[in-house]
Amino acid sequence: MTKLSNLIGNKIKVAFHEKSRENQWYVQKEKERRYIHFGKYPPQSASEEEKFEDLFELGYDVLAESNIMIKHSIEQLEKITDDFTNFYIEYDENVDMKGDLSILPEGDYIIYYYKGNEQNIYDSLLNTINDVKSKGYIIGDVVYEMLRPSQFITSSNKYFFTEFNIPIVKKDLTLE
To answer: What string of DSSP letters covers 57-91?
Structure first.
């Protein structure tokens, strides 16, 4: 009961923080994060389907507490569909997780929380990327979409809520 109470309390705290930042971007220093690639969705082969089965064998409590990440190439953002998306789950050294390890390095990231219509998500993200670049930030070529358990809690089923992390390569100080 204590574990469940702490989990719910943390989800509420994170949800209020995220809500206060929706549809805005800011710069934040992030620690190194580790994720395990568990496959493409929808699975395209028997081995990819096995990876998803392995994931669900970890148990509900692991899935309910873990962050899930989707990795997007910036050049492909305009063409994104729900087909063949690579999914990652936050690595937990206390859980036997199978899959390739992917490391998000420590550094500065643009953090952008999106709340809105699911059909407009990538247009909004592209607009944010253009705004970030206009402020002199030079960014990497990948965007990480973070699906945190708290983000599945929204006031309406009309809204989609997600967090994007965009690595900053450097800041062009001549544009300040």
So the answer is: HT-HHHHHHS-EEEEEEGGGGGG--STTEEEEEE-
What pLDDT, on the 0 to 100 scale, is given for residue 176?
54
Q: CB count, 10 Å around CB of 137?
A: 20
Q: Which amino acid is at 95?
A: V
Query: What is the residue type of 51?
Result: K
Instruction: Find tokens 């809520």 and name the residue.
Output: 161
Residues 6+ apart with CB under 8 A from 110: 25, 26, 27, 128, 132, 137, 139, 164, 165, 166, 168
* Statement: residue 63 has pLDDT above 80: no
Both structure tokens of 56: 């669900």
More confident residue, 90 or 132: 132
pLDDT in tens, 89-107: 787 777 677 778 888 999 9
What's the pTM value of the predicted model, to 2 decimals?
0.74
- Name every residue whose Cβ is closer than 8 Å to that of residue 46 and which is 6 or more positions away in sequence: none
Nearest C-alpha neighbor of 166 from the set 143, 135, 137: 143
Q: How far apart (Å, rounded) are the C-alpha atoms in residues 154 and 114?
A: 12
